[in-house]
Specification:
Layout: H1 4-9, H2 20-36, H3 38-45, H4 53-65, H5 73-91, H6 97-115, H7 124-132
Main location: mitochondrion
InterPro entries: Complex1_LYR_NDUFA6_LYRM6, NADH_Ub_cplx-1_asu_su-6
Organism: Dendrobium nobile (Orchid)
Length: 135
């Protein structure tokens, strides 16, 4: 018997990848889908003045490459599921402009570098805090 929520939500979770090659192909498919949605994201969040599609594409690529060492297909599938959820939230405008700028345009490393001499007198606690929080 099918669960009643499955028909209502219309969400279908794809089956798990059987091999590493299949998971790799799904990763490429996700990358293509994310890149195809970039013009929409640029338009929704009005990012033309601060970023280019090429820069956002590089950010997506860097996020995917962070997990290049993962070889378990089930883990890759879970990461792809989370990435797809994030992409859906971005495209459905479930985030605000400053979230997109902080996470994908400036990034965590960018804000830490921007602090420069501002944190010279800061304690080690604050320096570690700034490294882990991009706000």
């Amino acid at each position: 018997m099918a669960t009643p929520l499955r028909g209502l939500l219309g969400a279908k979770v794809p089956p798990n990848s059987k091999t590493l090659e299949e998971a790799r192909n799904r990763t490429f498919d996700f990358f293509k889908k994310a890149c195809r949605s970039l013009p929409t994201v640029m338009n929704i969040y009005n990012l033309d003045d601060i970023a280019t599609i090429s820069q956002l594409r590089s950010t997506i690529s860097a996020e995917i490459r962070k997990n290049a060492n993962v070889t378990n297909p089930k883990v890759i599938d879970m990461l792809l599921f989370k990435a797809m959820e994030e992409l859906t939230n971005v495209v459905d405008h479930a985030k605000q402009r400053h979230h997109i700028i902080g996470q994908y345009v400036v990034g965590r490393e960018g804000l830490v570098k921007d602090l420069g001499t501002k944190d010279e007198g800061a304690s080690d606690f604050l320096k570690r805090f700034y490294e882990t929080n991009y706000f």
